[in-house]
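Why do we bother with holo predictions? Because pocket geometry can differ from the apo form. Keep that in mind while you read this record for iron/sulfur cluster.
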Amino acid sequence: MKISKVEFNVSNIKRCLCPECPVQAESVCVEGKKRIMAEIAWSSESGMYFEADRVPGIYCSTGKAMCKDINQHKKCRCGECEVWKEYNLGEGFPDFYFCQNGEKR
Ligand code: SF4
Ligand code: SF4
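The structure, written out:
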């Protein structure tokens, strides 16, 4: 089955579990990005102001994490994610750890 490209949009960003993933929990770099995101209004779709390099998540769409101080020995949460389920990301490669393995392809 052909896997469709995961869209970089507000709905998917909101459902992404990466910001709460143990792999990123100790990252100073991720913490900084989360703080900036919290300052950006979530309220309207038209207020969307995200750029891929600002969002510490949705790596299944955007590819490997820019932050390098993440701990890939911790457990990936993608399998619990609604985006992962909707796009059947368990099929093919990569299926987990998109922050390390790059976007779904
Ligand atoms: S599948 Fe993983 S990388 Fe993609 S949105 Fe969900 S938690 Fe984030
Ligand atoms: S891709 Fe998986 S391992 Fe990487 S931050 Fe997201 S949930 Fe965690």
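The mean pLDDT is 89.
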